[in-house]
Amino acid sequence: MESFSRKHDPSPSPCLWVGTSLGMVLIISLNVPASEEQRQTEPVVVTPSGTVLTLKGAVLTFSCLDCMGSLIHPSYEVWRDPNSTDDNEKTRKRKLVAFSPSSSQDMSDHQFAVVCSEKQAKVFSLPSQTCLYVHNITETSFLLRADVVTMCNNVLLACFCANGHIMTISLPSLRPLLDVNYLPLTDMRIARTFCFANGGQALYLCSSSEIQRITYSQEMCDSLQEMLGDLFSAVETPEAQNRGFLKGLFGGSGQTLDREELFGEATAGKASRGLAQHIPGQGGIEGVKGAATGVAADLHRARIALDERGQRLGELEDKTERMLSSAEAFSKHAHGLMVKHRDKKWYQL
């Protein structure tokens, strides 16, 4: 991203921020050729700047804000179809676009670097690298996920803790805004897939085929019903046309008849108690097939579990045999050593 890699840099330049599990952030300076023609002949020069920022716990995320507190998005290149037949060839050149709400002069004067780890968050002023704000997020637990997001035209730090708490912290002042107990860590799938999005939303995989979407914004919750879509459009069923006797007899097309219409009590009268009565089941053949499929899946999982248990028992038996052979060898060597030095005095050893 475009930032200050050293204390006395006059303007931001491309650099790479590397966070480590020991709580250190290393800033590496990148010297990128300016034009596309130079990129074909000149390499990208990578040099360590010597700047190291330290925090408590493993680093999770970092981002940059301009002097107005707005999020600085990474630069990007506009993609255009190389096979396009546009007449204007000048517009097809690749151009680097910087996405920032402030002017380039303000951005070169001052920046805020937000760094968050498993235990705390810090805000540094760039290029002076002065630590302006420090906030210890948790002492008894640790963070699983942290992201810098935007909500209601404001930038904040959203965190998901291992004890199930969802917290939001203002930027760059690092003031706690929200701390709510949502879901304790009961499944590692949630810890691996949990992520925050803009607008006060978050997503995670609650199962191998289901995505859970949550929101911690009241504005998003109020407009949730308007955002729900329909799988189909409701259309009223038209009434069937009346068919004459001759048209039905010589029309050549079959007519669908209802079982209840032919043999129901309304037409044939009430049946006697001695006759059998058809009582349809709840699921029919499809329900039986679904139940059989579920039983087969359970049996398959049980067989896989038994195979894994047998494999573990076999590995345990091999380890036991190896330990027994090692113990026998040790006993044999110890007995030989004892026989060898049994008749010797202590000064003869």
UniProtKB/TrEMBL annotation:
SUPFAM superfamilies: SNARE fusion complex. It comes from the Eukaryota. GO terms for biological process: exocytosis; Golgi to plasma membrane transport; protein transport. Keywords: Cell membrane, Coiled coil, Cytoplasm, Exocytosis, Membrane, Protein transport, Repeat, Transport, WD repeat. One of its GO terms (molecular function) is syntaxin binding. This is V-SNARE coiled-coil homology domain-containing protein. Belongs to the WD repeat L(2)GL family. It is a peripheral membrane protein. The keyword Transport applies. PROSITE patterns: V_SNARE. Transmembrane segments: none annotated. It is found in: Cell membrane; Cytoplasm. InterPro entries: V_SNARE_CC. CDD domains: R-SNARE_STXBP5 (cd15893). It comes from Aquarana catesbeiana (American bullfrog). Residues 284-344 form the V-SNARE coiled-coil homology domain. The keyword Protein transport applies. One of its GO terms (cellular component) is SNARE complex.
